[in-house]
TrEMBL record:
The protein, known as: precorrin-2 dehydrogenase
Keywords, comma-separated and alphabetical: NAD, Oxidoreductase, Porphyrin biosynthesis
Pathway participation: Porphyrin-containing compound metabolism; siroheme biosynthesis; sirohydrochlorin from precorrin-2: step 1/1
InterPro entries for the chain: Met8-like, NAD(P)-bd_dom_sf, SirC_C, Sirohaem_synthase_central, Sirohaem_synthase_N
EC number in record: 1.3.1.76
GO biological process, one term: siroheme biosynthetic process
Superkingdom field: Bacteria
Signal peptide location: none
Gene Ontology MF terms in the entry: ferrochelatase activity; precorrin-2 dehydrogenase activity
Catalytic reaction annotation: precorrin-2 + NAD(+) = sirohydrochlorin + NADH + 2 H(+)
Domain Siroheme synthase central: residue ranges: 111-137
A family per Pfam: NAD_binding_7
SUPFAM superfamilies with a match to the protein in the record: NAD(P)-binding Rossmann-fold domains, Siroheme synthase middle domains-like
Length: 199
């Protein structure tokens, strides 16, 4: 497996099947900025934008315009969805048969701009979940603040420090764990100013 983070902002994602698994995939796609088309004849939920709900039995035409597809219906329907997606050159994830699709989803921890992903390549989703739970407790929300400060300071370093070696040294030093300790003890603004003082 090749790990990758996809930018789905403004892209269409099709979710075939609106049950529990389909709902999770739908939420994840919306959180990633995608527009989502859910195809399920039985789901009667009112879905807000950017979700379109098609209350029909699945047809290959439902995949038109999609960048990514999640097959979350019955195994029989999922087999058809995978075949149709492959025929149209669309990456597909098959909930009932992960090996039939093109990708699997890792267990994910998000803290602002920090994303931690854990995968066992389908060998043990339970283990991936347990590792994710451990990471959630170890990487708290202060990491989101640290990443945001690093993003701000990186922009300033690139704009003001001409020497490439010095830029690399500064950016590497700002990612040192000691800054996290200072952030917890001194707060956001103090750390931001201390990093800027290093410039």
């Amino acid at each position: 497996m090749f790990p990758i983070l996809l930018d789905l902002r403004g892209k269409l994602v099709c979710v075939i099947g609106g049950g529990a698994v389909g709902s999770r995939k739908t939420r994840a796609a919306v959180d990633a900025g995608a527009s989502v088309r859910v195809v399920d004849p039985q789901v009667t939920l009112s879905l807000p934008d950017p979700i379109t709900h098609i209350t029909e039995l699945y047809r290959a035409e439902h995949l038109e315009g999609a960048t990514l597809v999640f097959a979350c219906a019955t195994p029989e329907v999922n087999t058809r969805v995978v075949a149709d997606a492959h025929q149209h050159g669309i990456w597909v994830n098959a909930a009932s048969s992960p090996d039939a699709g093109d990708f699997t989803l890792p267990a994910v921890v998000r803290r602002g701009g920090l994303t931690l992903a854990v995968s066992t390549e389908g060998a043990s989703p339970a283990l991936a979940r347990r590792i994710r739970e451990k990471l959630e407790s170890e990487f708290d929300n202060i990491f989101a603040v640290w990443v945001q400060i690093l993003a701000e300071v990186r922009t300033e370093v690139l704009a003001t420090v001409a020497d490439e070696v010095r830029r690399r040294e500064l950016l590497d030093s700002f990612a040192d764990w000691s800054w996290l300790t200072r952030l917890r003890a001194e707060g956001t603004e103090a750390v931001r100013q201390a990093m800027r003082a290093c410039l």
